From TrEMBL:
<dbReference type="InterPro" id="IPR033897">
    <property type="entry name" value="SRF-like_MADS-box"/>
</dbReference>
<dbReference type="GO" id="GO:0000978">
    <property type="term" value="F:RNA polymerase II cis-regulatory region sequence-specific DNA binding"/>
</dbReference>
<dbReference type="InterPro" id="IPR036879">
    <property type="entry name" value="TF_MADSbox_sf"/>
</dbReference>
<keyword id="KW-0539">Nucleus</keyword>
<protein>
    <recommendedName>
        <fullName>MADS-box domain-containing protein</fullName>
    </recommendedName>
</protein>
<feature type="domain" description="MADS-box">
    <location>
        <begin position="7"/>
        <end position="55"/>
    </location>
</feature>
<keyword id="KW-0805">Transcription regulation</keyword>
<dbReference type="GO" id="GO:0045944">
    <property type="term" value="P:positive regulation of transcription by RNA polymerase II"/>
</dbReference>
<dbReference type="GO" id="GO:0000981">
    <property type="term" value="F:DNA-binding transcription factor activity, RNA polymerase II-specific"/>
</dbReference>
<feature type="transmembrane region" description="Helical">
    <location>
        <begin position="41"/>
        <end position="65"/>
    </location>
</feature>
<keyword id="KW-1133">Transmembrane helix</keyword>
<dbReference type="Pfam" id="PF00319">
    <property type="entry name" value="SRF-TF"/>
</dbReference>
<dbReference type="GO" id="GO:0046983">
    <property type="term" value="F:protein dimerization activity"/>
</dbReference>
<keyword id="KW-0804">Transcription</keyword>
<dbReference type="GO" id="GO:0005634">
    <property type="term" value="C:nucleus"/>
</dbReference>
<keyword id="KW-0472">Membrane</keyword>
<dbReference type="InterPro" id="IPR002100">
    <property type="entry name" value="TF_MADSbox"/>
</dbReference>
Length: 66
């Protein structure tokens, strides 16, 4: 069997990301993941969902789905 070229998906340690650029990128990626999970939950259960997130820059990101 051939060796893997990459490590694949790695579990990250839950701690604050010190690099501000990395922190902003992680926020945007995880925000889209949260929106997707909320949408799936709404579809499966027929519930109404509202999510309010504030970025590091103080910007508000709102998801309101019915």
């Amino acid at each position: 069997m051939a060796a893997k070229k990459t490590k694949g998906r790695q579990k990250i340690e839950m701690k604050k990301i010190e690099n501000e650029g990395g922190r902003l990128i992680t926020f945007s990626k995880r925000r889209s993941g949260i929106y997707k999970k909320a949408s799936e939950l709404m579809t499966l259960t027929g519930s109404k969902i509202a999510i309010l997130l504030f970025s590091l820059l103080g910007l508000c990101a709102l998801l309101k789905a019915q």
